[in-house]
Amino acid sequence: MVAIFTYHDMEGEQAGRTNFQTQGIAFSLDRGDVELSMKVILLLVIIE
């Protein structure tokens, strides 16, 4: 199981920053058999 998502920093956006969003990708190490939150590795890439 793979999930790709966006974190959104509302305070950063309101402050006029350009890096108020980050991208995340998560993948299950057990083919999705256990809750995703228990077996996930997160990789974040900051969008500038």
If you had to describe this structure to a student in words, what would you say it looks like?
The protein has 48 residues and is mainly β. It has one domain. The protein has a three-stranded antiparallel sheet with strand order 1-2-3, with no helix packed on it. The longest helix is centred in the N-terminal third of the chain and has 5 residues. The chain is rod-shaped and about 40 Å long. The C terminus is likely disordered.
Topology (elements, then pairings):
Layout: E1 2-8, H1 10-14, E2 21-28, E3 40-46
Antiparallel strand pairs: 1-2, 2-3
Largest sheet: 3 strands, antiparallel
Rounded to the nearest angstrom, the radius of gyration is 14 Å
The main sheet orders its strands as 1-2-3
Low-confidence stretches: 38-48
The span between the termini is 28 Å
Overall pLDDT, averaged?
Answer: 72
Q: Could you estimate the helical fraction of the residues in percent?
A: 10-25%
**Shape verdict:** rod-shaped
Task: State the secondary-structure class.
Answer: mainly beta
- Could you give the order of the helices and strands? EHEE
How much of the polypeptide forms β-strand, as a percent range? over 45%
Let me know the number of strands. Answer: 3
How many distinct helices?
Answer: 1
Total domain units: 1
Compact description:
The chain has 48 residues and is mainly β. It has one domain (2-46).
Key traits:
48 residues, mainly beta, 1 helix, disordered C terminus
